[in-house]
Amino acid sequence: MSQWEALKQLDTKYLEQLDDLYQNETFPMDVREYLSHWIEAQDWEKAVTNYSLATIHYQNLLDQINNQYSRFMQEKKFVCQHNFKKYKQSVQTVLDATQHVDCERHQDIDQKITALRNNVQTRKQELKFLEEQQDEFDFKYKTFKCQESHSSPEQVQEEMKVLQDMLNILDSDRKNVIHKFQELLVEVEKLLDTLVKEQLADWKRCQQKACIGAPMDVCLDQLENWFTASALCLFEVKRLLKKLEELGIKLTYDKDPFITQRPALEKQAVTLLTCLIKSAFVVENQPCMPVQSKMPLVLRTSSQFSVKSRLLVKLPDLANHIMKVKVYIDKNSPNGKGYRKFNVLGTTTKAMNMVDSKFGGLCADFRHLQLKEQKPGIGGKGSNEASLIVTEELHLISFETELVYQELNLVLETCTLPVVIISNVSQLLSGWASVVWYNMLSNDPKNLTFFSSPPMAPWSQLSEVLSWQFSSNTKRHLDAEQLNMLAEKLFGFQPNYAECSITWARFSKENLPNQNFSFWLWLQGVLELIKRYLEDIWNDGNIIGFLSKKRERSLLKRKPTGTFLLRFSESCKDGGITFSWVEHLSNGDFKIRSVEPYTKAHLANIPLAEILRFYKVMADENVPERPLLYLYPDIPKDEAFGKYYLDSEADFQNNKYLKTHLIVVSERRSSDLPSDEIMDDCQLGNIQLSDLMEFLESDSMI
Predict the structure, then answer these.
(1) DSSP SS3 for 223
(2) Which domains, ranges and CATH numbers included, belong to the chain?
(3) pLDDT of 117-127, one tens digit each?
C-alpha cells in the first residue's frame, strides 16, 4: 500500500486536515493520487540539496504528467484531462524557471570572467603607468648623481627630499599594485572553484549518467569557453607578475614589495594555472565499441573500440605545438592475484589536433584501439583474491600528454570511467549490468575494487536508471505503474517502495523465483524484443508491458468483452509478449484469457500487428471467432494498430484472388470453461504455423 492509500484510510478528522493541505492549487490532489507510486519512489530530500537531481526530477514529473494526460485522452476522462493539462502547464513553468536559473548561473560565470578580463586589463594599465613613474624617478635619480658634485649642500638636500617623496609615492603605488594582484588572484581562485569543483564536476556526473542512458546534455563547448578565457587571463597575470620582477631588478630598495611579496603571487598564479589546465584534460567520449553504442564502457578483447580525449583550453598557437597523447591501461591497477592484465593494440600515440573535433576543440580521437589479454602468470585467473568474476573486474584506460607553453611545462593525465572487459558476447549483458551499477552508485573513477563489496541500490535511484534503459533505446520511458510492477517483482508487495533497496547479487546474479535467469537478464530480454520487433507499437504507448496478473485482472474485468491489453511475459528469459482479453459469461461472471507468449522466433516470422489483426479462436464446431475488439481502455483494434498493418482491406476489393495470410489460431478446449467462482486466468495455446500454415482470410472458411 502506498503512503497515499494509507492516508486515504485515516479517520475523517485527519482527512479534513489532508483536504486543507491541498487547498492550494500549487500541487493538486488528483496529481498526488494518480502519480502516487512514482512520487513516493523518488528521493526528494536529496533533490533539495542537489540541483542537477532536482532538475531531472522536475523533467521526469513532466513526463509522468504527459503519460497520465494521454491515458485520460484515451479513456475520454475530460475533467481529469483538463486538470492534468492545467497542472502540466504549471510544471512547465517551473521547468522554465529552473532553466532560467541555469541560465542565470551561466550568466553569472560569464560576468565574472568579463570582470576578470577587465581587472587584468586594469592591472596592465596600472603597470604601464608604474613603469613610466619608475622611469621618471630613475632619470631624476641618475641626473642628481651626475650633478651632485657640482651642487651646493642646500641644493643636494632639496633634491634628495624631492627624490624621497617620489620614492615614497612609488613605494605606495607598488604596495597598491601588489594588493590589487592579491585581490585579483583571490577572485580567480573563487572562479576556478566554480569551474572545476562545480561545473566540471557536474559535467562529469552528467557524463556518467548519460553513459547509462540518462537524457543529459554533455556538450563541452561552454566549459571550454570558460576554461580558455580563465587560462588566458592567468597567463596574462603570470606575464604581468614577471614584468613586476623586471621592474624590481631595475629599481629596488629596503622592504621592496616586489622583492618580498611578488614571488608568492607568481607561485600562486602558476599553481592556479596548473590546476586549471590539468583539470581541463578530460575524456570527452568514453570507450565504446561501435556495434554496442548504447552500452559504452563494456569492451571485448580483439574488438575495436573508440575513445576521445580533449583539452578544454584553446591557447594561441597551442595547436602548432605538438602535444602527443599516449594511451595506457591499468597504470595503477590492483595487484591482486588473478587480476587480468591487458595490452592496448593499435595506434596508441596520437597528436592532439582540432580536425577530429566538430566544434574546433583540441582533441585526440582514438578510433581503432583493441585490447589483448596478457598470458596469466603463476596463479592464473582462478586465484583472484577478491573473488571477482570477469564482469566485475574494473579497469582504467588513461591518457598522458605534455604541455609546454610560455615557460609552463606540465604533464597532463586523465582517465576514463572504469571499463569492464569481456572475451565473449555472452558476457555482454552481465558486463553492462556492472557498468550500470557502478555509475549509478559511485563517482570515484579510482575505485576499481568497487565490486568487492558493492553497495545496495535504493529503489528511488534504480527505478530511474531502469527507465533510462528504455528511453535511451526507444522513444518511451517507463511510467510509474510499470515501475511499480517491476518493484513488486523485486521486493514483493510493499506499502512504500521508496524505502526499499536491492543488493547487487539479487539484481543481476541470483535467479528470480521459479526461474533460471536473473531480473536483469529478463529485463534486457524484454528490451531487446522491443528494439527488434515492437519499437513502433511500444513508442506509441500501445503496450502496457509491465503489468502483474492481479493488476491485469482489475483493469479488464469491468471492460466490455473483447477488450485486450499487451504485456510482457515473466517466464521468457529472452523476452516474450502476450495479450489477454476479457470475456463476460452469461451467468454474470467474467473470464480473463491469455495466449502463450510470442517470442523472437514467432515475431521474426510474423509481426505482432498482423497476429493481432487476424488472431482467431476456434470455438464450438470449429467456427473461428475474433476475440480481440478493443485495445485497453476502449480503442477499436484496427484504429489502434491499423497503421502497422502490412496491407489494407481495400486491397481485397481490387484483387481477383483471395488473399492468404500467415495467422495464429488458438483452440478453446472444454476445459477452458469456468468451473468455479475464482475464475482463474486461462492461457490459450497457439496452433503453430507449422500446423496451420495459411488460413484463408474471408468472412467464411473455404
Answers:
(1) helix
(2) 3-101 (1.10.532.10), 104-278 (1.20.1050.20), 281-446 (2.60.40.630), 542-696 (3.30.505.10)
(3) 999 999 999 99
